[in-house]
Model the fold of this input.
Amino acid sequence: MATITEAKLQINVDATTHKAKCVVTAKANFTPYEMNEIKEGLTFKLTCWLMADEPVVPTVVIPIPLHLYPQKSLPDSTPTAVEKITLEATLLQSQLNSGAGADEIYGQLTLTNEYTEVTRTKKTNVVSYSF
Done:
């Protein structure tokens, strides 16, 4: 099954406009078998959420969805065994504020084989910031 590697989130905040540019990058890696099936029309669907973990009590954390990037179909028009992924969104800082104190934001990518519906999920690094 295809895998997601090198998942990374970068958030650049512009204090003057109160906006944050959120960029998720990763790679989708396809097996030789999948590359053959891609030639026959197999596609994958990529979804990505920006998430925040909100602690309810010291031992319980609830993931809070903050933003859904537009779905992406993979591979692109020139399939390769490793597809580079870049997703960008500019959000208001208030959209990333999940509660009091510093927020811990991460990207959660899900790659779905559209024929078998088997999925693989990968989290990015966590970015801590007081939005």
Observations:
- The chain is about 5% helix and 60% strand.
- Residues 102 and 129 are 5 Å apart (CA to CA).
- The mean pLDDT is 92.
